[in-house]
Each structure stands twice: as C-alpha cells, then as structure tokens.
Amino acid sequence: MRLLFPILLLPAAALAGTGFDGSWKTNMQSLKTTGEPVVLLLAGGEYTCSSCNPPYTVKADGAEHKVTGQAYFDIAKVKVTGANSADIVLKQGSKELVRFSDTVSADGTMLTSKVTNLVGVQAVTDELTAKRVAAAPAGSHPLSGSWVEQQHVAGDLRPVQYRMTAEGFQMRWNGQSYDAKFDGREYPVAGDPGKTTVSLKKIDDATVEETDHRQGKVVDEIRLALAKDGNTIMVIDKDIAHGQTITYTLEKQR
Fold this sequence. Notes:
Blueprint: H1 5-8, E1 22-26, E2 32-35, E3 38-43, E4 46-49, E5 56-59, E6 64-66, E7 75-82, E8 85-92, E9 95-104, E10 110-117, E11 124-134, E12 145-156, E13 160-164, E14 168-173, E15 176-181, E16 187-188, E17 197-204, E18 207-214, E19 217-226, E20 232-239, E21 244-252
Antiparallel strand pairs: 1-13, 1-21, 2-21, 3-4, 3-12, 4-5, 6-7, 7-8, 8-9, 9-10, 10-11, 11-12, 13-14, 14-15, 16-17, 17-18, 18-19, 19-20, 20-21
C-alpha cells in the first residue's frame, strides 16, 4: 500500500523522567526513503499498483471497486483527471482513509503526489515528489512506470507523544495509541483500522526497537534512538512489506 503508515504507527509517549517523555514532531526535510520503487500502471481503462502488498488492479473509471487482501482498505476509486494526472481514493467500508492527487511533470520525469490521510481523528497532509526510474509502457498514462521518492515538499504529520517506564513504552498519535511492555508480546494499536499489533524491545535507556505485525505478518521493524542532548530522536523504519527503509528525525516540542 502506497502510504506513510509506518510513520503513523511509530511508538510514542514516555513517562515523566525519561528522555523519551513528551511531544515530538517530524522534521519533514529529514524524511528519506530508499529501497524498492513504487510501480504503477494506468492503461486500458485499468489501474494497477504492482508494488502494493498485495498488488491490486481496479478499473480507472471513477467508480468504487472492491479490493481484497489489503489491511487498510477494501475499496479503491481511480479517476483520470487529466493527460498527466489522476486521483486515487482508498476506503474501508464507507470511510475514506486516504486520497492521492498525482500529477506527472510535462517531461514525464517527476511525479508530485498530494496525500490526504484520514486514518486518525484529524486529517494529515503530505506532499512529496518522486523521480521516474523506469519508463511508462507504450500507450499508457504518464503515471505508469517505476518511481523513487525524492523529497517531501510540505506536510503536517501531527506530533506524537511518548511515555516510557522501566517496564514498557506508550504511544499517542492522532487518535491512535498503544501501551506495550518490553516483554516481546504483541499489543494492539487502539484506533488503527489496519489492526496493527506491536512488540517492543528495550536496547537501553535511549534506544527502543518496535516490531509491527499486521495480518499475521511482520510488516515493519522500527528503531528509535534518542540523541544525547535529548532534543531529537533518529528513526529508522525498515518497511518489510514494501522493501523500503524510511529514515527521519523527530524534534522535541517545547
């Protein structure tokens, strides 16, 4: 699924007295993604996301179509909005969860994607650019091909709150939360429509490792490393489900 869900499900919240305690906001300029490209095909009246896990195909006619096997959505709606643009809307039942407004540059080399994420209680927006690394098949829409993320132009991912004790770690983010112990067991993420569970490992007082599970599989391995000055957290998210690694910095809010 072409979403920033791994970012949204990061651990959070720490008890007073620990370095993790407090509210943290993502430095958008620090966001970097490496690994497998996003692979799309818009041709013959159909839209296919080959890099989604699992891949899916729906008609690109602007109507709602059922999708199976996805944790976060069971309906997709794809509409071609121009010679170089298209909108993709993903829903779970009657609730819209995410909307992509994608536009390809006139020379076909860059993709700009404006994302509205409605998974939490408040909308989260993001705008990113991606570079073409594989050509679109002949006769297909310019959105087709393989794309590698370049940078986040703008966005508001909402602050995340952390709380840490000797026994466990807590997270609060935009209506989603968990309270998990450092015992290796799986704990549910409340408010998450994808029904993610997390298991935690405390490396030391400044390092926590989180493993995300979804649909019976490990989908993310996340490492949080608190800086010595206590002002930033370095996040390394290994997105196993999509073959990507996402890194970024969280900054403490005063």
